Amino acid sequence: MKNLLSIRDLSKDKAIELLSSSNEMSAVNRRAIKTLPTLRGKTVVNLFYENSTRTRISFEIAAKRLGADVINVSSEVSSASKGEGLKDTAQTLEALGADAIVLRHPMSGAAHAMATRGWISSSVINAGDGRHEHPTQALLDALTINRHFDAGCDFTGLKVLIVGDLLHSRVARSNFLLLNLLGATVIATGPKELMPTGFSEMGVTLYEGLDQALEQKPDAIMMLRVQKERMQADVAFSASNYQRSWSLTEERLGQLKPASVIMHPGPMNRGLEISNGAAEDSRSQVLEQVQNGLAVRMAVLHHLLGGQS
Amino acid sequence: MSVILKEVTLASGTRADIRIEGDSIVEIGTLREKGVDCSGLMALAGLVDPHTHLRQPGFEASETVLSGTRAAAKGGYVAVTAMANTDPVADTSKIVEDVFALGQASKYSFVQPIGAVTKGLAGKQLSDITAMANSRAKVQVFSDDGLCVFDENLMRQALQKVKEFGGAIAQHAQDPTLTDGSQMNDGALSIELGLKGWPVLAEEAIIQRDAELALETGSRLHVCHVTTAGGVEIIRWAKKQGARITAEVTPHHLLLDQELARSYDPVYKVNPPLRTSVDSIALLEGLVDGTIDMLGTDHAPHSSEKKDCEWENAAFGMIGLESAASALHQVLVASGAASWQLFEKVSSQNPAKMLGLAGYGSIQAGARANITLFDPAASLPGATPSASKSSNSPYANLTLQGRVQHTIRDGHFTMFDHVLKEFDD
Fold it and tell me: What is the ipTM of this complex?
């Protein structure tokens, strides 16, 4: 395995292997000396064309714990700008010795372009491409569910509900694919205009309202972040309406099973898609997700660069 | 100069020898003389392309009239068109005559310029259609291809205008209000890939509207590159109503579908987009039952800078002249869907008729010697080098069935045994 571009590229066995190795990395992270220098001498470049604090820092710490050198490159790019940039940037970074490029880019398919067109031979990790995918987020979400339910990477019988702006969410797409791969029942809901029916072909059952979806008694509920920057352009968007219909409010907490988990990819808009009460509920796994993200990224880097097939 | 072709197979299935004198076929039968051994080869009416982008003037880095006609000869074409979306746009008699002259200077293929319907392809004001029709380029067909003539009143005026001299409007059916920023076919796959969808409605609504305008005006309408099952259905209906409507389909919409977009490789990015396999089947059915009249390559060369980038930044279009005959053979004849006679009709006869070109479309004594010799038993590997200046072929990883072996234009070989003839002047 050279690149991680899409969950579609993973077989079930490969996904399970990555989750198992993430578990081992979690153990490393609990040690007093949290390093496992298998990538000493390797260079990992975080190339981020969109703002992101947590994903970038997570990759940075992950690479450092494995002993790699890390370089962060941020660049502003508008989707209208001409495309020569990405190829030249990739080749420049490789010429400077990058063994892996962690790419976040506003265009769907940017990581595929970088990895599959013969531009470079470095590994490419998709850290979010447009509205397409964010595979390490799905892996960390799966790891969180797996650990909480001690599921042994078999999610049969587990029902996961994803709520919010599905249309623009790469987190949702990667989760749809990975959760299905692991055998979960995947359901989703969100505002009608942000929930295209095409998602049903990705193995998702769509519900019209949050309350209706909650009646399905999910074992895990993932609240997607409202992408305010996108919503502000949309005159029809009303925060109070959204909050009323789609927020995990304290009232709605009561509809959740006691043994369920509450998840959010972060950063949270408290009071919008998730209430303070839900974020801090004993069932909330938000901080575990962050910790698991670190483990997952260590495992992915280790797999791609550590000489393991 | 005299050429004898020995033991060709005609589209009818008849085996015969062909004698060519000068630019004409003078005899078909059993000849005593020796000649070019054509046993195993189909002798088909030389291919005519109703939809070619030659890119000159303005985009010579992608293609020129010369390189495009060389690609044409390599693909078995003897006549191609030159779409109007050049820089400057072919919207005056001066530009169409310039392009026509460039075509006349190439021995590889006849070049029929297509005039722009509106000035600068801007969709605001009709270009000087009559002047282009009366020019040396004798333009009969007008198109804003690449863009749609969206203004209904303007489209109606254009149809009325070409009726005066029996011309046609070739419409690129794409409602721009439904396709702003669209990247690929609209549906579950575009949702998964996070690329903006291009609804079939954007194409079908315009075909429907134009069909009604064609009925109302009694003018000739040509529908460029139909891609949807619904579009085929509308054209079928319009023909039943008596509309003077012709339609074309591209090889890539017959052969390829949207699943290729999963690679995010812009070589598969094309306008109109690759649709579903259900659409491809409907297109083939339409071609077989005569709803769709012809094959059009929509040969759209782009220099590698415009393709070797992210999908959303890449240009739309694929080259197709050199692969079209093999692609059509594979999907139409080798599959058993139709006969060689239909192949000849949709690749030569019907496009020549639509374009108003004489001297193409049949192999018979007395006809101009425009002949494509095709080997159905050979194959066309995807990696075959191209005569085009561009390399954006979607078949790079495919081997197509059958291959053009020789091309004869007006009595002269432009390609012999897959090798282009080099002309001194």
Answer: 0.93
